[in-house]
Amino acid sequence: EVQLVESGGGLVQPGGSVRLSCAASGFTFINYWMHWVRQAPGGGLVWVSRINVDGSDATYADSVKGRFTVSRDNAKNTVYLQMNSLRVDDTAVYYCTRGGGPIDSWGQGTLVTVSS
Amino acid sequence: DIQMTQSPSSLSASVGDRVTITCRASQGIRNDLGWYQQKPGTAPKRLMYAASTLQSGVPSRFSGSGSGTEFTLTISSLQPEDFATYYCLQYNSYPWMFGQGTKVEIK
After folding, report:
1. How far is CA B103 from CA A59, A113, B99, in A?
2. What own/partner pairs with CB < 8 Å and gap ≥ 24 does B51-60 have?
3. Contact criterion met (CB below 8 Å) for B25 and B35
4. Whether A103 and B50 lie within 8 Å, measured CB to CB
5. N or C, fewer C-beta in 10 Å, chain B?
6. Is B89 within 8 Å of A106 when comparing Cβ atoms?
């Protein structure tokens, strides 16, 4: 069974940083691109970023480009999202997802609240 | 960037009704479209990919159609467990884009 378990969310001040982690299990991690998707409270789904299988290439939504960095450690079956220069409008549940033409599995999400 | 326009944003329907949700892409995306269902407080679940391919385990009352710029998700006979919010996703080119969502409520 595919499992994606996010961690690292919490309350952070505007301008601050946080790193999300996503531990994957139940599938061959190195075979899949991974994506992050977020959802603001009461809002819709927004694609944030993706990383390829070996971590050599990543793509970002314009709203986070230059502030967020996605990475992965295939030895640990884990994908990360480093979030810097956080803004109030980055407040959202962040979902780790597996890219399977297209997204076919989701974690339970981790809430990041940006507030002073 | 490819924009996705989903309609309606919400609808009220009764058990047994036929329901249709539409997504329009701002430019052609072949059939690179997925549909997702989300219930309150839970992660989304994939219903469909490649516009019309049903995800394993999803009831056959769900169907998808379309290619290019216009796509539809149809629920042939709405069941109580289908009341949820539905999203389309274009994965033809980055940045991937979700539709705004359609909330299906009980009439």
Report:
1. 30, 25, 12
2. B55/A104
3. no
4. no
5. C
6. no
Contact state of A109 with B43 under an 8 Å Cβ cutoff: yes
Identify which of A86, A50, A46, A85 has the alpha carbon closest to the alpha carbon of residue A71. A50
What is the rounded distance in angstroms from the CA atom of residue B32 to the CA atom of residue A110?
28
Residues in chain A: 116
Tell me how crowded residue B12 is: count the other CB atoms within 10 A of its CB.
11
Q: Which amino acid is at A107?
A: G
- Reported as a single tens digit per residue, the pLDDT across A57-75 is 999 999 999 999 999 999 9
Q: Which of B14, B41, B85, B55 is nearest to A101 (CA)?
A: B55
Please write the tens of the pLDDT for every residue from B76-96. Answer: 999 999 999 999 999 999 999
What does the block give as tokens for A96?
């780790």
pLDDT tens digits along A21-37? 999 999 999 999 999 99
Q: Quick one: three-class SS letters along B48-88?
A: EECCCEECCCCCCCEEEEEECCEEEEEECCCCHHHCCEEEE
Non-local CB neighbours of A55 within 8 Å, separated by 6+ positions: A71, A72, A74
Q: Testing the interface with B: which of A60, A103, A108, A110 to mutate, by most B Cβ within 10 A?
A: A103
